[in-house]
Design a protein that fits this description.
With 112 residues, the chain is of the alpha+beta class. The chain has 3 helices and 6 strands; from the N terminus they run ββαβαβββα. It folds into 2 domains: 76 residues; 36 residues, no CATH class. The radius of gyration is 15 Å and the shape is globular. The chain starts with 5 loop residues before the first strand and ends in a 12-residue tail after the last helix. It binds zinc ion.
Length: 112
């Protein structure tokens, strides 16, 4: 049995992931969900609204892993425009926003 941590996204099923989501590293979705309920910063009215989904592209999310034990990861790089995480950012902006931002793209490499 692998004890490797996997990346999960925790969110409020009722509100939808676009209203806020957290990146959770744990061994199973059941454990990730329990951690999300007890330690997450997203409040849900109903117990069943706490939802956890295993993320695609585990290798990429592994770069954000702060430690080799289960945890909820904060300080994720978020898109300056839509405030979501989980994307590769270009000057702080995700691909989806980048594509819609046509002539307003930021100039130079000021990414802070
Ligand atoms: Zn965006």
């Amino acid at each position: 049995m692998s004890k490797e941590l996997k990346a999960y996204m925790g969110y409020n099923r009722e509100a939808g992931a676009c209203e806020g989501a957290e990146l959770i590293f744990h061994h199973t979705s059941r454990e990730a969900c329990a951690m999300f309920r007890s330690q997450g910063t997203i409040d849900c009215d109903e117990f069943i609204d706490y939802a956890v989904t295993k993320l695609d592209n585990q290798d990429w999310f592994a770069h954000f892993k702060a430690k080799d034990e289960p945890h909820i990861q904060d300080d994720l790089p978020t898109c300056q425009h839509c405030d979501t995480w989980g994307h590769i950012l270009y000057y702080g902006i995700c691909q989806a926003c980048w594509d819609t931002l046509e002539p307003d793209k930021p100039e130079g490499g000021t990414d802070d």
